[in-house]
Specification:
By secondary structure, the chain is an all-alpha fold. It has one domain: de novo design (two linked rop proteins), CATH 1.20.1440. The two termini are about 20 Å apart.
Length: about 130
């Protein structure tokens, strides 16, 4: 693949949206009494992973800000895993569904860690003005 110009071209972004949409689909079956608690929380945190990646991408002019935004996305992915655990323990998701989504979050976390540990591969440099 050539030069990545937009966050939606990143594999990590595509995976985060896919996981978030699966969580949305499955959470539609949660009980109505969970609408303003577990359902809202799990949807919000899973969507925050994607939005954090997008924000990090646009702020990659500054390495520290880029890494911070990736770290925030990592935290949101871990929070999503916690809500998934509750959803399984409450019987709203099957163990298989919870395990699959938990693994997807693990994959996202691993990718975020790699990006955050090697920011020079991602941040903009003055020698690459075409990246802007």
């Amino acid at each position: 693949m050539g030069l990545i110009k937009h966050h939606w071209e990143l594999e990590i972004y595509k995976l985060s949206v896919e996981a978030s949409m699966e969580i949305f689909r499955l959470s539609q079956g949660f009980p109505k009494e969970e609408v303003y608690s577990l359902t809202d929380q799990i949807r919000r945190s899973s969507r925050s992973v994607s939005s954090g990646i997008a924000e990090a991408w646009r702020r990659r002019k500054y390495e520290a800000v880029f890494v911070n935004k990736l770290n925030e996305s990592e935290g949101e992915a871990a929070e999503t895993q916690t809500w998934l655990e509750f959803a399984v323990k409450c019987g709203y998701l099957s163990r298989a569904e919870g395990r699959q989504l938990h693994k997807a979050c693990d994959q996202l976390i691993a990718m975020l860690v790699v990006m955050g540990n090697e920011p020079s591969k991602w941040v903009l440099s003055k020698s690459r003005p075409q990246d802007r």
